[in-house]
Amino acid sequence: KDGGKGRLLSWADLLCFNFHTKKVWIFPGSEEARFGSTVQQHQAGGRQWLLVGAPFQTSGRKRTGDVFRCPLDNGTSEGCSRLHLGNLSLDSVSQRAEEMRLGLTLTSDPRDSSFVTCGPLWSHECGSSLYSTGICSRVSRTFRPTGTIAPALQRCETFMDIIIVLDGSNSIYPWSEVQNFLINILHKFFMGPGQTQVGVVQYGSSVVQEFRLGEHRTVEEVVVAARSIRQRGGEETRTALGMEVARSQGFGRGGRPGARKVMIVITDGESHDSAQLPQAVARSNRDNITTYAIAVVLGSYNRRGMDPEAFLEEIRLIASDPDQEHCFKVTDESALKDIVDALGERIFSLEAGASPRGRGFGLQMAQAGFSAHLVKDGVLLGAVGANDWNGAVLKDTKDGKVVPPRSSYEDEFPEELKNHGAYLGYSVGSLISSDGSQLYTAGAPRFNHTGKVIVFTLADSGNLTVLKALLGEQIGSYFGSQLLSMDVDGDGRSDVLLVAAPMYYSQGWERGKVYVYGVTPELALVLQGALEASDGAQNARLGSSMAAIGDMNGDGFQELVVGAPLEDDHQGAVYVFYGRGRTIQRRHRQQRLPAAGFSAGLRYFGQSVHGVLDVNGDGLVDLAVGALGAAAIIWSRGVVRVQAGLLFQPEKVDVSNKDCRRGGKAAACMAVTVCLSLSSRTSATATVGADVWYSLAFDEGRSPPRAVLEEPDQQQLSRLFLQTGSQSCRHHAFSVQETSDYGHPITVVLETGLQDPDRGPVLDPDQPSVLRAALPFWNGCDQEDACVPDLVLHAGTDLLDVGQFCSSGSVWSVCGHRSAAEGGAGVVEARRRKVAVLARLENRGENAYAAALRVSTSSNLLFSGLVLKDQSDVEMECFSESRAAGELSCNVSAPFLKPSAQVSFRLEFELRPALLLDHIQVVMATSSEGRDRNPEDNICYIFLPLRYQADLLFTRDPNPLRFQIQAGGPAPFSWSQGGADSCHDFNLTYQIRNLGTLPVHGLVFRAEIWAVTRGGNQLVEMLDLGLDQEEEEGRPSGASSFLPNGPAAEDLSHLSQLNRSNGASVAAQCGLHLPASTQLEVRLRGRLLCPALLAVGFRALEVMTTASIRMDASSPAFLQEDLAVREIILEIRKEGDYINPVWIILGSSLGGLLLLALLVLALWKIGFFRRQRPEEEEEQPVANGKAAEELS
What we know:
By secondary structure, this protein is mostly beta strands. It contains 16 helices and 78 strands. The chain crosses the membrane at residues 1142-1164.
């Protein structure tokens, strides 16, 4: 039983996709032949085949490569046979087929059951050079080659038709020297198909063709024929006739189209038909024949004693221009051997324009067929060696080959980077745009060391236009070495372009990466992410091969297979990724197929992948994977779904109807019917069967459960055999025990699975294997489908209104002049941090299921907590997604609130110090699943204006300030503010402490100095009003000042104090902000104005200073008193010459004398003078003695 569940878990973890990890066909082959380098599933002749490339396979002694075919419909992995395609050949080409790597590229064409295989290192000779241009073979459905494809093959620079015109007249002597010259020059020619062919014409009085062009195909054959040529003789030298025969008959009958025509004329004297010579030369020039003329000058002329100048002029006429390049002269026949090398070099320099020497390679080393891709009108081939290894892309169509000019690539592959060897054409592909047109793709993995991919069009004219380019991000990652476009959703348009970088270095290893680019309708390539190997992979080289396969799981989207042949220490692995929508899922349920799971001997498993055929007939594609010396077919498995249903009798639990006893207790007995059916996601026609198990559980995770299965169903799995198209049902009895929780329905869990995960189909991983159903309790209402509750909500706050606040004995400014409007405002006490909403919810109707409360508050309230009051069995919980959101949701007594139930609760909110509004607002609304009988009492709306108690401690320095000025000094200077006219500076300090828990805004501080006399003299100057907080509202404003023309004499001696009753003030004020529990210090700096103080008359004078605080009219806060005033006295004294009146002096003197006389009289009366004297006499000796002692 437990083992069955264990198998389910392990199977579900492994089989995210449906390739069989245990049923695999492995086709063995030769490791030396690299059997398995490429694989293609192929259908031809009504049979299914696996084509396997073996690019190192030998053909005789030559290692040409070949392709094997392995039958897939005979039920075994045996019987692979070789196709013997290594004998590829082209007419008129001197080929080298060894090491051509046939089978390195393999592409199947389902349109006509043919396939194309290429040998990119196929080479051919051109003179002394060997060019690897590459070749491909198209093979028919009968596995016979039907044609060769070689778009990079070009005419050799040695592709020449050469006719040697020999003067065989009697004057030539000795003939053996001419024969030796002929043999030597023939050895200089590269003869063979596609190269040079030679004919010989001999003339004298008549003309004879010794052998024609193409009559002998090798140098050896031509040399043998030349040795048998005998001198024909003749009395005349008819050079014009010899040239004409060579032109018309020699080139006309054996010449090849496109071959360079060369004529070599050897003669030792003037022609006897010199009149016809200009016409013969003109005809040769018209036929583009290059003519070399060799004059044996001193032979017959020396023997005859003749002047050779006319002969040399004739030779210059025969030779093509310029003469110095085409005209030779020797002293005699034996000297002909000296010009052999020079003549050979000049002949082959004719094709210097086609030679790679000095200009780099064009297509000579193209290696066309390194990659191949079938397109609508032919085959697209990559040629990595073209253009000095920058690479190129070629196309072969039924109308011929398409070769873009080298200049087509210059913008994307600039000349200055050609030494990097971009390898364009390492991979080729195509994609279908939104308008249905086919665009081509090609990768250049070595471009600028990081790699590049281009998207382009290629016209039949050879015009290549690059539309988009993608660049790699890491040096050496081989970005673009594999390309694949996918139509994931099957709408006929390419959805993604996959670009592999198999050597991408990550986490210290060459793990590889596959980039996923989305293809937009505008043809923008948007990077969607990257596919990577599993976390444990090391040198994986993920992306070495890629293939799109059909829908494997029945969701309608194509899947992707990616090879990682170096994973697991070069054993290799294959990854399968889901398609979904219009992209590839990067991490969701990827399946990894390691080689170690199939065969211990596999190596480099995943170096090639392909999948288009359903081999085992289950309606799904089976996967072909290539390895070193082996190829594998991994079988797919059908995907099924198990549909489950539960039917309860009765449909709801009625706990009041206890009709049986279980465990000695009354219980409600019920039954459940389990019905299962099977459907196939991947096969719409075939009948599929599977053994299925299922299990039932009640109240999952709850102990003890409220419902229990009857014996014997409690401890075992139930098993059924299901077939698509049918349903099977079974009944199970269970009982429900007494419970206090009949609000929550009973959860019933039905789990299903396959009995044997290793056989038959697999379960759809997207289909849940667990069905959860809720078995509800009867709602207890008159109507089964609905209850009619009647929820009533009452709410208020715990804030005192102004009337209540004042009636509690508080003496504050708000109590002295409150208006009717203010009477209903709530008072926020100074030390209050929270506001509570006191509410009661009751149900006066039927059960209220899913009763809930929604609360919305003003922004100055933050939800703090919920407190339930009284002893109630009603449960309640509140939650808020964000404290600052102002929204709160509460669930009340889930699942329902009983009739007549009520709950009192307290919602606590913190006041936001940073946002003190002049009101609070709370909107509460209750609801339930039923239709409320009286919905109008389901909402409470609280809007309360607020007044904030500002508990401030306003103090000042209690000590008065005293100043003293010296009178009678030098005359004051002219009046000016500050400077020499001022004297003592002073500072007045005031402290304001906020004793509350909330900040105070809108506080106005005002300072006044009553220092302006009625005569207009300003005695004190206010310099500055400073704060200990740097805030904008703390800046002084509204300062007033008196600036009279100058001090004037004024008598103030009758005044003891300047104040508001007898003077004017200078003032300043500022707005203040006090955070909670902080103190602010205000500093007033002033200065005594000495010129004014010296000008007025006084001896002592007090100057009154006042400071007050009040709340701004717009502030909702209030103080204990409307205007709190603190006073500080400035005491000023003046010293120096002060003339008192005479009567004051006389009166004072007489008064003093009279007071002294009265004092003496009083002392005498009491006997003071009489008692003192004897005492002094008695003490005198002591005093004297003491004095004496002190003196001694």
